[in-house]
Write a structure and sequence with these properties.
- The structure is a homodimer.
- The first copy, chain A, is of the alpha/beta class.
- Chain A folds into 2 domains: about 110 residues, CofD-like domain (Helicase, Ruva Protein, domain 3), CATH 1.10.8.240; about 120 residues, CofD-like domains (Rossmann fold, 3-Layer(aba) Sandwich).
- In chain A, about 35% of the residues lie in helices and about 20% in strands.
- The first copy, chain A, has a 4-stranded parallel sheet with strand order 8-9-12-13, with helices on both faces. The first copy, chain A, has a 3-stranded antiparallel sheet with strand order 6-5-7. In chain A, strands 1-4 form a two-stranded parallel ribbon.
- Chains A and B meet through helix 2, helix 3 and helix 4 of A and helix 2, helix 3 and helix 4 of B.
């Protein structure tokens, strides 16, 4: 068991958006709610048992309601916006919110600067949440852009966490947006290459398909193959071990040719036990690997 | 019947406050919700059937929850705050919100400038809502202050409405705060004196007691008597007709000595019919009076 206090989670903020004058950070929120045991498991986002009364009236006021903000969830955005308008950083806001919800795991936004993931589509350049939620990932993906990334620095503690830890796990999230957005910060990618800790990643692609989300459309859109091999290719410059699903075990040799060790296991997390098993495999892989 | 479009309501904004980074205008809101048929009649504020889920989580985040912001109600504050942060005036925000809710009556904040009603008490100077809601009007009132009033101008349309109308009704609200706050804007008081229209007021004090709210505590606190006569005294420089409750008919002579005509009727509004009857008496009084 690794004590929760010793875990740092570095989170994508490229999906952040402002709606109704509120600063919303979808990935920080979903991770915070999940770790606090508050997440609506059925929906996969938001807070369980939430109501949508505020949004109903915002709709009456002519506002867009495609981003489903629950009433409880709104408290997070209201509090965050209020603190940020006083000049408090997103990192510090996140620390305070997590503290209030009793989280011991440290949550860090990848940056306190403004980076926005935008998708170039035939209808123009749109924000990632607009692409994903409003337009339900139906538009052809022509290009993925991380607006502001050239000027952005990792948040305080991010590079330090990577350099000083005993191991890094790259979770099975979207390799182009989500993980890709975090990696778009040069100093973070550099830290992953430089650290003495081992880096393990879990493939988000199983049998040529993403476990959830539109990774396939994004990968195809920018001319990549939708496969665990392709993901390993994207990560190979910092990756020590790649965990792929047992279903994909025939890809092992091909991936190992990239200089990355491969571990095969069940990576599809349906139950709490599935999650625990996969975490154990990842931690074991970290312990065995060494640079 | 006066067509709704021809009625302008000038509203106190001295009770406005910022909470959780949101701009809240309690008097505009209650009047807007009431006219839109949305108000929670039982509570006397907020929107009927509202929930308080957002506030619960704001409490979890360590925020004060004495000002009971419902989830539906929050939409008003979120939208208003968002528009105001873009530089839209409170007058224009109010126009848009009212339009969305189908209101035909014109609602005007008394000013687009910042005026704040503050109460000096033994524990210090506190905002009016803090005095009224948080501390439940329990503190001794030493002084009433309208912060910012010297620099404030009436909102566009307010003075014009008073000068160009066929009659003014000063509603039975708190004569020191609420009505007093509106009157603290010199140009509004001047317009009431200057207008060729008649001005009718309805006494908020019946048998030496306010119908609701802490008017008695405020009046006593600043050394005034709690009586309809005292209210007439406060309004006499612009008032043509004062409507008092039939219960107080023995005060008629005393008030008429101030140069104000008096009409006696039932002023306590328990039912919709009571409201309609009183409105009719007020309109009749306006029609009979002339300057």
């Amino acid at each position: 068991m690794i004590p929760e206090e010793e875990i740092t989670t570095i989170v994508n903020t490229g999906d952040d958006l402002e709606l109704h004058g509120l600063y919303i950070s979808p990935d920080l929120d979903i991770i915070m709610y999940t770790l606090a045991g508050l997440v609506d498991e059925e929906k996969g986002w938001g807070i369980q048992g939430d109501t949508f009364n505020c949004l109903k009236i915002l709709g009456k006021y002519g506002q867009e309601t495609w981003f489903r903000l629950g009433d409880k969830d709104l408290a997070t955005h209201i509090r965050r916006t209020s603190l940020m308008s006083e000049g408090v950083t997103l990192t510090e806001v996140t620390r305070r919110l997590c503290w209030s919800l009793g989280l011991k795991i440290k949550l860090l936004p990848m940056t306190d600067d403004r980076v926005r993931t935008a998708i170039r589509t035939p209808i123009g350049l749109i924000g990632f949440q607009e692409y994903l939620v409003k337009r339900m990932a139906q538009d052809e993906v022509l290009e993925i852009i991380f607006e502001g990334v050239e000027l952005a620095k990792p948040a305080k503690g991010v590079v330090e966490a990577i350099l000083d830890c005993t191991g890094v796990i790259v979770c099975p999230s979207n390799p182009l947006v989500s993980i890709g957005t975090i990696l778009s910060l040069k100093e973070i990618r550099d830290a992953l290459m430089k650290t003495n800790s081992s880096v393990v990643a879990i493939s988000p692609i199983v049998r040529g398909e993403p476990i959830k989300g539109p990774a396939d459309k994004l990968m195809r859109g920018v001319g990549l193959k939708v496969s665990a091999v392709q993901v390993a290719e994207l990560y190979k410059d910092f990756l020590d071990v790649f965990i792929i699903d047992s279903i994909d075990k025939e890809l092992k040799n091909e991936i190992e040719k990239l200089g990355v060790r491969v571990v095969c296991t069940n990576t599809i997390m349906r139950t709490q036990d599935d999650k625990i098993s996969l975490a154990k495999v990842a931690i074991e892989a970290l312990q065995k690997a060494s640079r």
